[in-house]
Amino acid sequence: MNKPKMAAEKSASRVLMLLSQLERLNEDHKVSNNDAIRQITGKILHLLQTQEKTRKEVTSKGSGGMEVILSSLENTQDLQTTLNILAILNELLTVGGGRRTGVFVSKGGTAILLQMLVSSSKNPPANEELMLHIHTLLVKVGPKDRKFGVKSRLNGALNVTLNLVKHNLQNHKLLLPCLQVLRVYSSNLVNAVSLGKSGALEIMFEIIGPFSKKSTTLMKYVVSVLCVCSSGMNARRAVDRGYLPTLLSIYQDWHRHDTRHRHVVIRKSILACIKNLTNIKLGRKAFIDANGMRILYNTSTECLAVRTLDPLVNTSSLIMRKCFPKNRLPLPTIKSVFHHQLPHIAAGGPVAQLYNQPPGVDDVVDESDENEATEVDTENETEYEDDETEDLVTPRPDESPLELDSISISKRPEGTADHDLVCSLGRLVVDGGVNGGSVDGLQDEGGEQAVLEVPDTAALLPLHDPDLYLEMVKSTRSVPAYTEVAYPDYFGHVALNLREPILERVYGVQRMKIFQDIERLIHSSDILDKVVYDLDNQSCPVTDNGESLKFNSKFESGNLRKAIQVRKFEYDLILNSDINSNHYHQWFYFEVSNMRPGVRYRFNIINCEKSNSQFNYGMQVLMYSVQDAINGSPHWVRTGSDICYYKNHFSRSSIAAGGQKGKSYFTLTFTVTFQHKDDVCYFAYHYPYTYSMLKMHLQKLSALRTAQIYYRQDDLCETLGGNSCPLLTITAMPESSSNDHISQFRSRPVVFLSARVHPGETNSSWVMKGTLEFLMSCSPQAQSLRESYIFKIIPMLNPDGVINGNHRCSLSGEDLNRQWQSPNAELHPTIYHAKSLLQYLRATGRTPLVFCDYHGHSRKKNVFMYGCSIKETVWQTNANTSTCDLQEDLGYRTLPKLLSQMAPVFSLSSCSFVVERSKEATARVVVWREIGVQRSYTMESTLCGCDQGKYKGLQIGTSELEEMGAQFCLALLRLRRYTSPLELQNHNSHLLDTENDLIDTRGIPNITSTTTYVLEEDEAAFLEEVDYSAESNDENDPDLEPDLQDNLALLDPSSDSEFSQTE
User: Which residues form the Peptidase M14 domain (predicted)?
Assistant: First the structure.
């Protein structure tokens, strides 16, 4: 039973004995003992080949076996001994040799092999068996030696191996390990360039060839070497020699013959070579000239059905998108269609930069865009309804209007329908209303009076009145002088009782859309390219054959600049820039008519600017059907399938993009199937909330005032566009005129609320609506809240931007939430007067207890807050100030914590209380620093939905947003319990002296949102979850809340993170 074990022990001891003898022979240089050494090494090799355990004995700690073997290899001049030792090393490093390889490298084995390789090549012809052994070992050792590339270059081994390849093209036995070593060499960029200069590319193209079953292993290593050597500086050399068409032909041949997909690795490596060559402009041109787009398109479409071939499809897609010729947008200029004359233009300001650009700058395309980043294949798809209804007459958007006084408005119970009513659907027009003129309404084809059926939604929408809305529209002043009214704003929106889930991503949708875009270049003759709507050419009516959709955006808050029919049921849409700007394309709101039911229409908004969007994470666009509204369902509903968001082939000039070279646009694409024939439907980025709607709601709210409610509406100021900015004061009336009650009335702490500084963040207005309705309600909690505080509310800080369909700016072409440090009374009147009011409150000892600015966030889920904390800023920025020396009241955390307990959509883990340099000019930071409000917040509401709490997995609707506004009020009521009486009496929060040291602004210019700079959201590409927690100690968490990343990037000059702002 013990004989095998004893035999193993004897063999192991024998190996040690032989190693000991070899060591003594190495030390005795006087005696020529080549025969003895040859005999001993042969015996050691035999033992290693027959007894597996002897390998461990040789490399065990303290044995010194590896040193003895390497010393013998370095000193011997005998060929057979050398071959024996190389074979011994090969045995030691073959099976389970990871640790042994590390020992080999640490003992200087790599250098010995490289020196032997070079010295052996000096006496040609080199021994083939010796070269085979050396290269076989280098293949195993190279990846384990971090300095292998440098060592091989310094020893001159690169050209030795390359020459061996050159002279042994038919000797596959030696060629294969040499190619493997070349692959390891070229993993070092300097080596790759050196090999390219020495002719490695030419040699590889002598080996590479069409499909063959005989030498697939060799082919695999050839293309792997070629892939590495064709990058960087070698790419131009390869393109100049015409290798790119050759690679395309070879790829096509392997694709055609590899029908069982057994050689996907080879095909992928060939694509990787093509990808490297197309990284340079010359390579992209050669790719197009070689018909590469068509070749890769055809091969990729044949691979789509096989999931295991996705790597080929993805790489092909990346190459085609990169080589797709960059085009400018089909516009005469990327500046806004509309222009508003400003009182003055600050020299060096964004508007001055915009209008001082060289003529034709919008036509310049920066060809230096070398961006290779590819988007993650994240797509969404929903089922669509295919119901058909009876034939209805087409709404006539081009009909002449009737006087509004002649319209008969009738209301009928919900649920009843008269399909003939759609025959009379025209366009609701306010003719000259902004100048006090007459108000026109609907007219049918014959010019007779039209009867518009308005759904009776008074019980569900107590604050909505269509007649009152039209009255409000009359006094609303827009730059384009809009005379039309959108039906959803006129009819009103009733929140859905149904839950609308966040869409699950369906694999392959985005890729399919990208391939359809590539088809445009390959099959250009199939593209209609028919302009069906154009604000730049309004005087020239668009011809229509009755087959195209009709578009319109000439109403309050509307935004659609141009619509181009590219295929029968596909349209490219271009959004208008913010007025006096050349960017900020995100908000859209437009009308579509003349559709067919049961047809899948694809819409592509092609000039989006943000690098990521919640449309990649389950968010859908909103649609409002007029036919559904007349039939008793006046709802904005989430709709669309095949939704995805990706980079397209349109780009801006480097000058127009503020120096950001070759900045590309992104496409939002979605597919819609209409349910009704000849319906009139509206699409929007989020639930619209117009300025006229606000005025209507405020007038209806004032009618709810009771004897117990103090409600006053003032005009804060007049905007640049001539519209008033409402300022509300809401509190409880004093119980009596006694001194005690009057004193209590005057001593109530102030809560200052504002919203809608960014016009495209309409969700902030719906949250504000919920707040206002709660404050004006008769509930005991509302009465208690009014008795606790005096509310100063500016429900819409940017009326002009809202009216004119802007996304972020006012008529000054600037982001108003970057003007709070030094607002200009003429250019930023709402910010100037809002700040003045806050300064007045501070001067009179009425500093607000809470300031909160309502916003919307396009890249995150849930509702959360940004606040201000010195201590957390120090902690996150690793400032030198010791946190133990800072004393700070943690009361700024109370309100967010209360909201996380009360509001189901609120997420405390997404909140941040860090003060960033990039946010110094925002309302939140300025009110905190200059006015002294400790509880100064920005409350961000998602545009998409929730990933936690009661509404997890659901898209957010107006009812949830209004609920959030009401919950905010309840949290303020509970906050009163946690606030000390002393703090209520003295609201002035004295900031610590260290705050000015931490955020020193003396060297920072006044922050403005330059018109020529694209401001993105502060979220990393395709990261939707935020793991930052205020209680966390993970300072270097890669998923920190983007505000923190932004701050860290600003403080660390070496950081290359690209984050941006939403506040």
Answer: 687-976
Residue 589 contacts residue 548 (beta carbons within 8 Å): no
C-alpha distances in angstroms, 91 versus 5, 47, 64, 134? 22, 10, 17, 13
Helices and strands counted in the chain (H then E) = 38, 22
The answer to whether residues 600 and 671 touch, using CB atoms and an 8 Å cutoff, is yes
Beta-carbon contacts of 310 under 8 Å, excluding residues fewer than 6 positions away, are 303
The residue behind tokens 């990393």 is: 1020
Q: For residue 830, report the phi and psi dihedrals to the nearest 5 degrees.
A: -65, -40
pLDDT in tens, 281-297: 999 999 999 999 999 99
DSSP per residue, 227-244: HHHTSTTHHHHHHHTTHH
Query: How are the residues of the chain apportioned to helix, strand and coil, as percentages rounded to the nearest 5?
Result: 45, 15, 40
Side-chain half-sphere of 681: how many Cα atoms within 13 Å?
A: 26
- The sign one gets for the Cα dihedral 683, 688, 690, 695 is positive
Q: Which of 916, 940, 963, 1017 is catalytic?
A: 940
Distances 617 to 584, 640, 643, 769 between C-alpha atoms, Å: 21, 14, 9, 27
CA 836/CA 838 separation, integer angstroms: 5
Distance (Å, rounded) from C-alpha 434 to C-alpha 450? 24
CA–CA distance, 1048 with 879 (Å, rounded to integer): 11
Tell me the three-class secondary structure of 369-411, residue by residue: CCCCCCCCCCCECCCCCCCCCCCCCCCCCCCCCCEHHHCEEEE
Single out the residue of 916, 959, 969, 917 nearest to residue 939, CA to CA.
Answer: 969
Is 940 annotated as catalytic?
Answer: yes
- Please indicate, yes or no, whether the overall pTM of this predicted structure exceeds 0.85: no
Burial 876-900 (b: 16+ CB within 10 A, else e): bbebebeeeebebeebbbbbbbbbb
Q: What is the total residue count of the chain?
A: 1063
- Contact (CB, 8 A) for 823 and 906: no
Q: List the beta bridge partners of residue 750.
A: 790
Nearest to 141 by CA among 105, 108, 192: 105
pLDDT in tens, 11-58: 557 888 888 888 888 877 555 678 888 898 898 888 888 887 787 777
Strands ordered across the beta sheet of 636-639 = 550-552, 589-593, 680-684, 621-625, 636-639
